[in-house]
């Protein structure tokens, strides 16, 4: 939004041109036009259904954004579920925090990163049992919000079949929101999603030699 | 990470070339090299101090990622603070959720979006009193984690002075983490930050006519 941007209609701007409107008046007019534009967009957005959100890219914030949406959903009294497909060393904070809520089912695949375990067969079994839990939740109209954290990693390794995920997404209850995170989201999943954000690295503290620490995503 | 990628060193690869290693063995070797590389990077990252994280860009997830980091920080038992510089219509879920935690100070500027109020003087006063609270928290070593949600919007409108923010960031307690969100982060703030992520829109449900709904970031 540039300071001089005209976000709304131009009706009447010629009439006003001769007036030396004060900065305050100009601000009010600009904001009034912006409000009209936004109100119109809100009025046009009438479809009410659960959405599929995908957070991907190499930057930070994919998982933490999913957990932020989870917090918001719990705040609205939604029945929520989380399946973490990759348990990172620094996910213990989220787990400690969210496990205390009764209205939340929290499942962790619990086998560490694949380069920690170095045991492909075990990873495949773990990913597939995590997916079985996820699929069950997505089929259950009792859940309003399902977070599938780092599922894209399991898809990239082909530990979980993309077709199974697409079928579960398409067949889920109409009002259910699903959030899928992880770098390298497959094209077909992006195609199926309603909202997709790419988190891009601009700067990364870890690469600058700063130690990973509790509570923060470097 | 490509399936055939060599993430680690190449030592010994010629010796192994003649062997018909099983897929399982190749996987283990590849993951072993990846683990060595990652362990080396972790060993090199030795600086322990609070970091400044900036989430910017036009995509979704900037605020929700900040709230996800807040949840994680609370999970680690950190003393946390939030100042929301713009109260959006759909931030009530976060507020309802997070206000129940005693270890968290939660402040909302509480004046709606600037295009809702259309009163520049009132917006400036509200932003400046929100900033006064934020500055106080950033000066207090009792706070481990401070989230300044949508501060970048207040900076873009020049309702809060960039120099004041840069000074407060530089002078804050050494171990304090600060997360600043909002589109249009100023260059000097990006320069001062340790980790910066640009959230890019790939797809946006709201633009496709889907109504904004409780609990989800469209």
TrEMBL record, chains A, B:
Residues 1-35 are annotated as: Disordered. InterPro entries: CblAdoTrfase_CobA, Co_AT_N_dom, P-loop_NTPase. It is an enzyme of class 2 (transferase). Residues 23-35 have a biased composition (Basic and acidic residues). Keywords: ATP-binding, Cobalamin biosynthesis, Cytoplasm, Nucleotide-binding, Porphyrin biosynthesis, Transferase. GO terms for biological process: cobalamin biosynthetic process; porphyrin-containing compound biosynthetic process. The lineage of its organism: Bacteria, Pseudomonadati, Pseudomonadota, Gammaproteobacteria, Lysobacterales. Required for both de novo synthesis of the corrin ring for the assimilation of exogenous corrinoids. Participates in the adenosylation of a variety of incomplete and complete corrinoids. Pfam families: Co_AT_N (PF12557), CobA_CobO_BtuR (PF02572). One of its GO terms (cellular component) is cytoplasm. It catalyses: 2 cob(II)yrinate a,c diamide + reduced [electron-transfer flavoprotein] + 2 ATP = 2 adenosylcob(III)yrinate a,c-diamide + 2 triphosphate + oxidized [electron-transfer flavoprotein] + 3 H(+); 2 cob(II)alamin + reduced [electron-transfer flavoprotein] + 2 ATP = 2 adenosylcob(III)alamin + 2 triphosphate + oxidized [electron-transfer flavoprotein] + 3 H(+). It is found in: Cytoplasm. CDD domains: CobA_ACA. Its EC number is 2.5.1.17. Pathway: Cofactor biosynthesis; adenosylcobalamin biosynthesis; adenosylcobalamin from cob(II)yrinate a,c-diamide: step 2/7. Residues 24-42 form the Cob(I)alamin adenosyltransferase N-terminal domain. This is Corrinoid adenosyltransferase.
């Amino acid at each position: 939004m540039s300071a001089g941007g005209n976000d709304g209609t131009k009706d009447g701007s010629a009439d006003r041109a001769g007036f030396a409107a004060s900065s305050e008046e100009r601000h009010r007019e600009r904001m009034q036009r912006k409000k009209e534009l936004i109100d119109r967009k809100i009025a046009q957005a009438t479809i009410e259904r659960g959405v599929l959100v995908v957070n991907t890219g190499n930057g930070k914030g994919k998982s933490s954004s999913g957990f932020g949406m989870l917090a918001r959903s719990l705040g609205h009294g939604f029945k929520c579920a989380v399946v973490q497909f990759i348990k990172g060393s620094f996910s213990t904070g989220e787990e400690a925090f969210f496990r205390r809520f009764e209205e939340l089912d929290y499942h962790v695949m619990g086998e560490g990163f694949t380069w920690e375990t170095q045991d492909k067969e075990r990873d495949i079994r773990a990913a597939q049992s995590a997916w079985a839990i996820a699929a069950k939740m997505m089929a259950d109209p009792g859940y309003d919000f399902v977070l599938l954290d780092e599922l894209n990693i399991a898809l990239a390794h082909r530990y979980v079949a993309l077709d199974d995920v697409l079928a579960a997404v398409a067949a889920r209850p109409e009002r259910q929101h699903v959030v899928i995170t992880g770098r390298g989201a497959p094209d077909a999943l992006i195609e199926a999603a309603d909202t997709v954000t790419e988190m891009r690295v601009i700067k990364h503290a870890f690469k600058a030699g700063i130690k990973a620490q509790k509570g923060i995503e470097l």
